[in-house]
Amino acid sequence: MNPVALITGASRGIGRGIALALAAEGHDLIVNYAANAAAATQTASDCAATATAAGRAIRVEVYQADVADRSARDKLVQFTRERFGRIDLLVNNAGVAPTTRADILDADEASFDRLMNINVKGPYFLTQQIARWMIEQQTSAPAAGHPPKIVTISSISAYTASVNRGDYCLAKAALSMLTPLFAARLAEYGIQTFEIRPGIIATDMTQAVQAKYDALIANGLTPIRRWGTPDDVGRAVAAIARNALPFSTGEVINVDGGFHLRIL
Ligand code: NAP
Predict the structure, then answer these.
(1) S-S: 157 plus which of 46, 105, 172, 249, CB 3.0-4.6 Å?
(2) What is the pLDDT of residue 144?
(3) What are the residue ranges in the chain where pLDDT is below 50?
């Protein structure tokens, strides 16, 4: 029986990289997306091909759900139950940047509400639902060899001030509290939680600021002088998923080329 992983926002970017990495390790997958059905279908078929190339047989399902919407979250969980009957890994990846960057002296409440709903409320309540299911599973039919895990993709913006997207920074700072909260609550059930904090990763989200980041990286912003890739993040999630950190929980893993280092 393959472990089952639900990845939010897996149609593109980092979520897609995570899906591909888990496919190669033999996870059955739910590829969630918000609007881009074609990208989600493409990711699903690429995951199946990746698994086959790695000598694994996996099942991949695609499911549209806006994580900010309560009834959509309910249906996503229900779909996962019906199709797979179990859950071993939740990856809270779905997230958005502000539609337009605005100085914090001008920024409006509509963008703030949108980011808080998608980037904080969605993952918090989806985690609550999945955590209840994982507890139920751990009590009735625990899977030998792969204890359930919850991985949340935050950002260096959780602690880095960008004054032209304060709503994003606030949302990611709030999201960072999800992992210690659920780590503390779920450890007694053998459920681990982790936060992955990506740095500057080449995806659609960062395309609009590519030239700015190219220059910053060339000038030494990150000790490892290159853009991160979705595969860099996928590898970190895969390491957690294959149980490489059995005595850790609530841990933050920086996937940022060393951005977080203070260097003198
Ligand atoms: P992206 O390329 O814009 O992809 C976003 C993904 O999230 C897409 O699959 C999108 O689905 C999905 N999504 C958006 N809103 C959703 C919603 N309401 N419900 C469900 N799915 C939704 O972004 P990315 O760069 O891969 O970012 C992924 C995560 O990493 C985000 O949480 C982001 O904050 C975080 N992050 C990114 C970077 C970076 O440098 N790129 C750095 C640190 C952290 P559709 O395809 O259907 O639109």
Answers:
(1) 172
(2) 75
(3) none
Mean pLDDT for all residues in the chain: 97
Residue with the nearest Cα to atom 34 of ligand 1? Answer: 95
User: Does pTM top 0.85 for this prediction?
Assistant: yes
Q: Measured from the CA of 198, which atom of ligand 1 is nearest?
A: 43
* DSSP code at position 35: S
Q: CA end-to-end span of the chain, whole Å?
A: 50
Q: Give CA–CA dist 201/83, Å, rounded.
A: 32
How many Cβ atoms sit within 10 Å of the Cβ of residue 109?
A: 8
Rounded to the nearest angstrom, the distance between the alpha carbon of 142 and the centre of ligand 1 is: 31
Give the closest residue to 146 by CA, choosing from 88, 188, 193: 88
Q: How many helices (H) does the chain have, and how many strands (E)?
A: 10, 7
* DSSP states of 18-51: HHHHHHHTT-EEEEEESS-HHHHHHHHHHHHHHH
> How big is the CA angle at 53 (ends 47 and 57), to the nearest 5 degrees?
65
Tokens of 41: 């279908």
Q: Which two three-digit tokens encode residue 18?
A: 């995570």
